[in-house]
Specification:
It contains 2 helices and 18 strands. By secondary structure, it is mainly beta. The protein has 2 domains: about 110 residues, Jelly Rolls (Sandwich); about 110 residues, Jelly Rolls (Sandwich).
């Protein structure tokens, strides 16, 4: 995951596709203009919007507004995107020119906000499913003060990651508790012990990511 700040009129890459990974975006502030799908449909994403281009889906982005845009960019799996950002260019990186047939349609992309997301209500929590793709899931999670927390656990087959949106969260990373506020990112790779709970009296809100999903959203639906 990469945190980006784009100034007014700043442009991203030329339209492109990835063959083997999903490229996704979560807007934190301002507006991000996205171009998605074979139709090259142009849409505007406001704060809280999650967008994703699965493999073979044309996409690009820019800040066409007069204000700064801040957003998260996720590649699942990464396939070396971090090195691309660091300037360590790999000619074999999974980024390609748009295919002659246009690739997948706009309907195959993900574009949604918490207001129109599938919502799972529980007594102490609200889960809004923003993305449910074979390579990545994203859930906007709110936990009210009565929430007792998630006990330390591990996953054998996927990364479980969190970006704190609101409130103070106590994460358990291995044997060490750490308190994290808004803007903090925590990722637990496979076999890493992790858990979390409230660190204060107010509700907490997290963007929770699973890559690959490993059936997590289906388990949430079953327990709703």
């Amino acid at each position: 995951m990469t945190w980006f700040r784009y100034e007014p009129d700043e442009k991203g890459p030329d339209p492109h596709v990835h063959f083997h990974h999903t490229d996704a975006f979560y807007v934190l502030a301002g507006e991000l203009e996205l171009t998605l799908g074979a139709e090259r449909k142009i849409v505007t994403a406001s704060p809280g919007t999650f967008a994703a281009a699965p493999p073979h889906t044309i996409h690009t982005f820019r800040n066409s507004s007069s204000a700064t845009a801040v957003f998260l960019n996720l590649h699942a799996p990464s396939l070396g995107f971090g090195d691309e950002i660091r300037g360590k260019k790999n000619p074999g990186f999974d980024q390609h020119e748009p295919p002659a047939d246009g690739g997948r349609p706009f309907a195959d992309a993900v574009l949604g906000s918490p207001d129109d997301a599938e919502t799972l209500e529980r007594e102490v929590s609200t889960h809004r499913i923003l993305c449910d793709l074979p390579q990545l899931t994203a859930i906007d999670m709110t936990f009210r003060p009565a929430f007792e927390g998630v006990d330390p656990h591990t996953h054998a087959d996927h990364v479980d990651a969190f970006y704190v949106l609101d409130g103070e969260v106590e994460f358990r990373v291995g044997d060490e508790p750490r308190v994290a506020g808004p803007g903090t990112f925590v990722a637990a790779p496979p076999t890493a012990v992790h858990g979390f709970s409230h660190a204060g009296p107010e509700p907490i809100r997290l963007l929770n990511l699973h890559a690959p999903p490993a059936g997590f959203v289906d388990r949430l639906r079953q327990n709703a």
